[in-house]
Design a protein that fits this description.
By secondary structure, this protein is α/β, with parallel strands linked by helices. It contains 11 helices and 8 strands. Strands 1-2-3-4-5-6-7-8 form an 8-stranded parallel barrel, surrounded by 5 helices. The protein is globular and about 65 Å long. 44% of the residues are buried. It binds 3-methyl-2-oxobutanoic acid. 3-methyl-2-oxobutanoic acid binds at residues 30, 48, 50-52, 90, 186, 188, 209, 219, 221.
């Protein structure tokens, strides 16, 4: 039984998200399975089935080897748990190399899952792909700034928007994505001055991660913000829970009690 009523009581629509700009900050979190999607459902407007699951759940060092099969499997699970929050499918690396391939793969997402939109990393150079999807009835969430799928090509995770040229480039990227029909844009790993300029330039909502406060919403990776992912901790992550500590204490207690035969005690016996 849940301990309190969720904040949101009916399914969040794309229109509600678009209309939030300038009215109310948008909340978004990642989820990878039904168990956690159920816990988050209705507390945040949006749930992203991020390809970050390839790192935190699958143990890989970056997101690049995530596959369509893997993402579809997890998205089905999340949709089973999320009846209120708007669910977004993160298109994995290599699944949208050209407009035709992107359309085939994104159509598969709509046919096989209940995700309401797909997310695509890339700026102006991906506008033709976004345009093909949106003109075929697929809702697209853009993603610019630091793009984890470019980590190998960029030689690491690099903060963007540090000078005027880069800020101008990011604003142009955002405008191209908006023109191509994206309904919102994730802005990751940029200086606040840049995310502010982008947010003011476009009429669609911007959702920041490591992008400061001058945006229309925030997203965090659940395993980071609840302290379960210990491999590294980006500066922008606020830990709302020290999950790893609680789990490690609990597993140690369980193990000790089994070894000492104090579990199961009488109250856990038939
Ligand atoms: O994969 C993911 O979790 C993401 C977020 C970092 C926005 O793309």
């Amino acid at each position: 039984m849940s301990i309190h009523k969720p904040k949101i009581d009916k399914k969040v629509t794309l229109t509600k998200i678009v209309n939030s700009k300038g009215v109310e900050p948008i909340t978004m979190i990642t989820a990878y399975d039904a168990l956690f999607a159920k816990l988050f459902d209705g507390e945040v407007e949006m749930i992203l089935v991020g390809d970050s699951l390839n790192m935190s759940f699958f143990g890989k060092e970056d997101t690049l080897s995530a596959t369509m099969e893997q993402m579809i499997y997890h998205t089905k699970a999340v949709c089973n748990g999320a009846s209120k929050s708007f669910v977004v499918f993160d298109m994995p690396f290599g699944s949208y190399l050209n407009p035709n391939q992107a359309l085939t793969n994104a159509s598969r997402v709509y046919q096989e899952t209940k995700a309401q939109a797909v997310k695509i990393e890339g700026g102006s150079e991906r506008a033709d792909i976004i345009q093909t999807l949106t003109s075929n009835g697929i809702a697209v969430l853009g993603h610019i700034g630091l793009m984890p799928q470019f980590v190998r090509a960029d030689g690491g995770y690099k903060v963007r928007g540090k000078d005027k040229n880069d800020i101008d480039k990011l604003v142009q990227d955002a405008l191209s994505i908006e023109k191509a029909g994206a309904f919102a844009i994730v802005i990751e790993g940029v200086k606040e001055e840049a995310s502010k300029a982008i947010t003011e330039a476009v009429s669609i909502p911007t959702i920041g991660i490591g992008a400061g406060n001058c945006v229309d919403g925030q997203v965090l990776v659940w395993s980071d913000m609840f302290g379960f992912f210990e491999d590294f901790k980006p500066k922008f992550v606020k830990e709302y829970l020290n999950g790893a500590k609680y789990i490690k204490e609990a597993i140690r207690n369980y193990s000790d009690e089994v070894k000492s035969k104090s579990f199961p005690s009488d109250e856990y016996k038939y």
